[in-house]
Amino acid sequence: MADLSLKHIYKVYDGEVKAVNDFCMDIKDKEFIVFVGPSGCGKSTTLRMIAGLEEISAGELRIDGEVVNDLEPKDRNIAMVFQNYALYPHMTVYENMAFALKTAKVPKDIIKQKVTEAAEILGITQYLERKPKALSGGQRQRVALGRAIVRNPKVFLLDEPLSNLDAKLRAAMRAEISRLHEKLQTTFIYVTHDQTEAMTMGTRIVVMKDGFVQQIDTPRNLFRNPINMFVASFIGTPQICFFDGVIYKEGREISYVLDCGIRINVDFYIADKIPEKYSDGKHRVAVGIRPDDVRIDDGKYKTDEWEITEAPVVMVESLGGENLVYTNLYGKNSPGEDGTLVVKTGADCEIHKGDIVKIAINKRNIYVFDRETEMNIISGIPKENIVDCEIVKGKMQLGNNSFNLPKAIYGIKDGKVKVRIPSDGVILGEGSGKGKIARVEIIDDKVLYRLEYGNYDKKDALFPLFVYEDGNQCFDEGDNVNFDIDFSKISIAERNITPLNTVNSVKCSIVKVREKNRKYTFYFDIAGELAEIEHVIREKLFAARGIEIFDTEPELIFDAFAVAAEKSDNPSRYAFLAEITEILDYGRFCFGKADLGESSVVFPYSGNVGDTVSLKISAEGVTVKDRKQDIIIV
Amino acid sequence: MKGRQLILTCLAILWIVPLFYLIIQSFRGEPGAWSPTFFPQQWTLDNYKRLFTETNFPSWYRNTFIIALVSCIITTAFVLAVSYAFSRIKFKARKPMMNIMLILGMFPGFMSMSAVYFLLKILLPNNYQSMASLIIVYSAGAALSYYVAKGFFDTVPNSLDEAARIDGAGRARIFFEIILPLSKSIIIYTILISFIAPWCDFIFVSYIMSGVPDTSKYTVALGMYRWLERESIQQYFTTFCAAAVVVATPITLLFMWLQKYYVEGVTGGAVKG
Asked: Which candidate from A79, A86, A89 shows the least CB-CB separation from B182?
């Protein structure tokens, strides 16, 4: 019964090898989180850091709001189940389960009651007097679970608990652990390399590779919106099949053209999500097709939803209940080569090696990845919209709508331009723009709106998005809404307008000064400008680095909105003093710009150039990065 | 195959003959060190009787037993604790310390004899030729022979320690309640080794106790050696043989009884937690 928060968690061995990189995650009470990834990806290390068996090199781990970085495992109120069960071989099952309670000096009758209860839940009552040696693998794992249950922990940690069991038992225990989670109503964190376990058990899954978190998402989203090729191929059996190709755009029609010559037309609402740079016909992409989205065509499949093509059968694998038909879109005849596409069919399907079959590919569920970066280019939530606009006398024409340009970018040359508007740069429900909600997609706790404006024909469609943190949907399909544009976020390449970078980063050093009362005070020093380090941050700095903090090369990173700026000559001791060099008025927000050391910082401020301001950075909004090791320490 | 067995048989005979000779000589009735026949002409138990009634042997035996027992207890505790620490606790000086201890352990112990002598003189100025000083000598360097036990602890899965840590046990509790009960064989091995070393040692005792007029303070090794000197060998040779049998018997029995654990202890990995 606990929330967990992992902030910028790192594990660094010998000051060099990073086993876990910048792991950030908030885990809600009663969630079943699964860490999944190939061996050596850092999933077990992360779990062990949560357990307290491994020291956290940098970052902050909270259980129920309390920072537990330096707490011993026993004080974290967690329980862990190990891959090799780790039962005490010389003790009976009862003693094994009672050990923790005995250590905690719980009265004997209560121990007995708790152990009996746990044994009943797991159905191991008849084995209580046996030694682990006399138990089967599944029974041992149950005892290990029982040992965890009796302690009534806030968090259950399970480190590949089923890998030592045979396939049949594994499936049974999988169900049992899920049932246990429901019964105990506790937070579970489960490490596995088996994607089936991850998909069937997790409420959310963390996919890791080489120490980096690839994606944290629900099983469904991992499957349908994988962030990159790695996640796409890791999740789903049989694996997704990739085909190299390009994307062509003719007018508003967009199609994938595979190297084998197959051309697949794309639905307009997917087409809108494809960033423009990919649809030039040159950018290499990898098109991913899941076996679940392919059928053997018996003439039933309509071409507006299905792409029909022919391919030779290379191999047929029978799984009893179903068959896997390996075809090759390139016409090659041996398995394992490029162009292999797997099709799932029923067991009674009469297809043999060497046959030429007609296959139907579901066009709506095709994945496209950048060949170079391997990232999914049709993300569930597009990052930006590229729209054609016209600048006329200090106004921006967007379809029928006209927006006044704010002072910060006022005075740019008139003419037709392409404007990039990030998805969170459109504000629905206010402003002078008028449009209509054409489609609503709910993606986890976020709502994606497709807003159409202007003449409501497809050519004018703007594709903005609205992200609701709490998941409340405010508009329905067909609603007419007003909208505004946050000009601080837009960019216009032709006019050299770039979005305002609201993430400030400043190099600094940490100094200590001996005060008159002989106590030391610690300061951030930015080119001679001092501001006292707030207590919370100081504690974290020393917790992360100890005395070596003075040798690190810290960099302060903070958002513009984390800065409180006030016109003042006499700053508080936690604030820096600076002079406004520029005022950027974006209409909705007005920002001030000032120099701090070598870098300039922006912050919300609406005064005049030349004002002297005190800048206080809120302790919650600042991160401190060690530039030497490239690690976030606070 | 046959050739190999022949060689082994020859070797076995070679090894057994002196032992066998010693045993039968302890039952010889004729006096003197030299006997013209392999088997005695007169069989008797007088040598054993004489050993316990006419000589200081009983007090030597008692001394040796006390020294061996006490230093065995201290040594076992040292070795197990140090080995466990080296196996489980990761601290900066771990590797260098292990290497230094390994190298130190390679030097023969008697090289330090004169240094040990003077150190004892400083440590126990009035009593340096005593059982206490022998116990110190035998148990002080015990931890140097950590490697067999460490090798054993390395095979006990670390996850047991971790499970116990999560269950709330401290280091000491883990050591005594989880690891030691699983390490019977290595405990017995360590006890055997650390009992035998002082039981059989001659070099240190001869050096430290040299010039002590009261022969009742000797250990068996030193006392029996005196019997083999030129002036006493004729008188005491058969008694010496009897004493040798008495000294060897308990250890031999102990070994035979605990042989199973001894082999497990040396081969380490044979036992899984």
From this structure: A89
